[in-house]
Design brief:
The structure holds 2 protein chains of 2 kinds.
Chain A: E1 3-7, H1 8-22, E2 26-30, H2 46-50, E3 55-57, H3 62-74, E4 78-85, H4 93-100, H5 103-106, E5 116-121, H6 136-140, E6 146-148, H7 153-165, E7 170-175, E8 182-186, E9 199-202, E10 207-211, H8 214-227, E11 233-237, E12 240-242, H9 246-256, E13 259-262, H10 271-282, E14 292-294, H11 305-310, H12 315-325
Parallel strand pairs in A: 2-3, 2-4, 4-5, 5-7, 6-7, 10-11, 10-13, 13-14
Antiparallel strand pairs in A: 1-8, 6-12, 9-11
Helix pairs in contact in A: 1-7, 3-4, 8-12
Chain B: H1 6-31, H2 47-54, E1 62-65, H3 70-75, H4 80-87, E2 111-114, H5 121-134, E3 141-146, H6 153-164, E4 169-175, H7 184-187, H8 196-199, E5 203-209, H9 213-229, E6 233-238, H10 251-255, H11 257-266, H12 269-280, H13 285-308, H14 314-318
Parallel strand pairs in B: 1-2, 1-3, 3-4, 4-6, 5-6
Helix pairs in contact in B: 1-2, 1-12, 1-13, 2-9, 4-13, 5-6
Classes of the chains: A alpha/beta, B alpha/beta.
Chain lengths: 326, 325
Amino acid sequence: MAEKNLPMREALRLALREEMLRDDRVFVMGQEVGEWQGTHRVTRGLLEEFGKKRVRDTPISEMAIAGSAVGAAMAGLRPVAEIMTINFAFLALDAIVNHAAKIHYMFDGQFRVPVVFRAASGWGNQATATHSHTPEPIFAHFPGLYVGCPATPSDAKGMLKASIRSENPVLFTESIALYSKPGPVPDDEDFVLPIGRADVKREGRHVTLVTYARGVEWSLEAAEALAKEGVECEVIDMRWLRPLDMATVFESFKKTNRCVVVEESLPMYSFGSEIAARLQDEMFDYMDAPVKRVTAMDVPLPYARDIELMALPDTQKVIDAVRAIV
Amino acid sequence: MAKPTKATLLDWYRQIVLIREFETECDRLYKEKKITGVYLHLYSGHEATGVGAVAALEPRDHVITAYRDHGIALARGVDANACMAEMMGKKTGTSGGKGGSMHLASREHNFWGGYAIVGGHLPLAAGIALEAQYNATGAVVLCFTGDGSTNNGYFHEALNLSAVWNLPVVWVIENNLVGMGTRIEDASGQPELHKRAVAYGMKDMGRVDGQDVIAVHQAVSEAVAYARSSGPVLIESMTYRYKGHGVSDRTFDKRMQEELMEWIEKRDPITILRRHLEESYKDVAGELDKIEREVERVVAEAVVFALNSPDPTYEDLISNVYVEE
């Protein structure tokens, strides 16, 4: 398959453009997606190409952005609603959790909600406590919603296209720190990745690193460093927090018998907690060491650079966690 | 606008009496513990608003409301059997027994549901209207909402968005003067709620007597025509709830008994319409009595249907969490 080397934001834009060309029902809406060309430039050029009907600037109204996208989806359109950053999705939490996720069930299948909520996520550049959230696990708590969190430009394209084509609501987060990082992207308009399928990004036999989004980069760097010491890590990029592909984790764990979970989010009631719980429940007989978790520290994120970084996961923290159990 | 015909008025009378009878029966069944869900918000007292407004729509148009939704479902023609079965959490209910009193819906009637988060359905209405505009279907959305919803963010955001995008929505505030227990003047800086339209640059259709079905129909018909051709419009329908916030609301009876009795005596939707019919048509009383007996039979049958319907199963518990794909 032909490939292009693109940063993640370009891969996402390609996915949006291809799906808009393919299906007239698909449109994008959100704050500054049109005239401003997108806060993170993901929607750059779309207004010029598709016009105001399909590239819709909205007021700063997160509740209405999310809620009207739900209504439009119920009525048969395919909205891709951009929540400028995931921090602002807390304002839309009710529309996402109580309506997008529950309407299909609550009315016993009478309505479908094929909406995609796109949101930039994560910390960096001293954005401070209110603008540095990675709350994907909060959304993944709720049945009825899918949650996708790509780690590479290729996955970003294939996962966003899958989300847009899905009949179910999807919360789709994009790590701000990954927007500019390039990678090979299939130049194929039908490159659509399956929803809920993890991807083994590196094979190894000693320790399973279970991660997603930005954690993939730290995990791969840690695996590279540890390989020099003779420790072979298998890196599983979950890609989706819901559906959660535990089969791939279990298969790996049967081989390695050890696991470190790596995530950018906070430690309590987290992705890591979930993975660890499932492993102890279903893989107890294969377990040779406690499941370790690398997460952000349990504090709000401060402004000052040094202590901000101190609070956050990085490659070295992953290496340290692996060393603790091998 | 042409005056409603006798046949139309009789049909409205039937609907209003049907809703009243249905709600009275729900109240009784709740007390008998045949309806066991904690939340049951009755439409008694509001009937003329729902019936008059919904009658202004065409089949292609859309209706959505909050949790006081039984009357809207019935006015839209949703089967009383399925509504009653939903009250009892039966598989034959409008939502398969998974939604309950606050979550009736019927896709085939373009009735998009009752919603139980105050104001939460308002942006949904805007989104449904966006589809109508996007695909140029010519449909409008009739969105009912309570006075209490006008003070949360959903109201502001959804109405503003509908104005910015010029969406075909008729926003109908059913102002029954009180939230759960907080009176409108203690909750709204501007208790004349229709005036909010000015803030959004939206057509303000003012207040209408929500107990007079003919007046409601007249006003909402104008609003629907406006929405279909020009954009969103706001109407405030002045009404009153007879059974408190929900049937478990006992403080209401005590605190507002005098006011309630005055509304029932002077502004009851059934009395107002019946008087109008009797003044307009000689010897209509017999027809009205016949309608009342027919409605009693329909509701009694609905209760039997619901009681005899199967309960949902484990398969229902786990179905429709996601669309299978």
